[in-house]
Here is the input.
Amino acid sequence: MEVKPTNLRTEILAGTSTFLAAFYIIIVNPAILAEAGMPFSGALTATVLVSAFGSLMMGLYARNPIVVAPGMGINAFFTYTAVKGYGLTYEEALGAVFWSGVIFLLLSVFKTREKIIESIPVALRHAVSAGIGLFICFIGFQNAHFIVDNTATLVGMAAFKDPISLTFMTGLLVAGALISRKVSGAIIYGIIFTTLLAWPIGRWWGDASAVNFGVATMVNYTGLFALPDFSLVGKADILGSLRYAYLPVIFVFTFTILFDGISTFVGLAEASGLKDPDGSPRNMRKSLLTDSMATLFAGLVGSSSGTAYIESAVGIEEGGRTGATAVTAGLLFLPFMFFSPLLSIIPSIASSIALVLVGSFMVMPLTKINWRNPDEAIPSFLTITLIPFTYSLSVGISFGFISWTILKLLTGKKSEINPILFVITLLSIFFLWL
Here is the structure.
């Protein structure tokens, strides 16, 4: 694919488009991290800092038109697995994010990441992406109170005539229509629309339970602006996160950002033609170093891991070809540190729209798995289903590695197992045994 020439005006417009496509993270990430006990305003400030830092570094150092921000899926792992599952405090979870960034940085510096990546079957990489997509989609439906507890079947759907469910589904379909029409910033427009639609709940219908799902928070609205909340900066418990029992958390953080970053860079390079002469994504090493530094920085300022955003394709499609696109987007994030009072009124049924829609995008790699080959299909299926069903990325990923290795051994295909994959499989068994 031929790379078209560009100019500063085009780069600024492309950066603005990418920012609009990724803006939802400023709302959704703090909402998810708040479930871990973190202050919403502090998490919002941290989200903006990571997004601005990562995007600026990507533009100025790696010179790629790619936005970096806290990743979807990994933020859910932070809250629902690391904190609520393994029992880490959010300070210890931030320490784990920091150490995953250090490990990723070392892997990048010593050029060992390529060997690790090559050892992981492509089908499992696709399965992990799809599994994470289903996981955050499931969380979105729960946070919207569309899927609820059911004593007979564990989960079930809320009453469809419930105004909360109707509002959520209306907002979801409107956002989906905007995406289908290729409207820049479709998700954020859907969130705003749902927020406005949700405001009468609890007043017109007299639904007192609406308060539990954030739809009545507008009555507590105190203004548009506030000074940034830096209360989470420096809160990471770096030493406390190195406990023996917490190693699986650091492992999954590292694994996820490693493959999420690689798959994003490769996908964007294939779509845009932004490649080095050897055919690899342009400035790959510098881009991965940026990813690792964004994650390390995230742990220090109070957010889940940073990663490259596939939404950068929006800006690239608009003509963004240089680092100026990422710099523009990075600068646009900064003013929103001052909008925490305004953004805090957005109800969970509105922010959950982003979880469901982004989850739908993440299952697209399912088509690349060879489902006719059982020793590839079964481990992929286990990975995809166990991530949401066990509410744990670490469990799903570990069973994927274990089942892949064992099936290849039992079917006489030992030659298809990279030695490094043997080591990763043993580590997976070890982590499950903890």
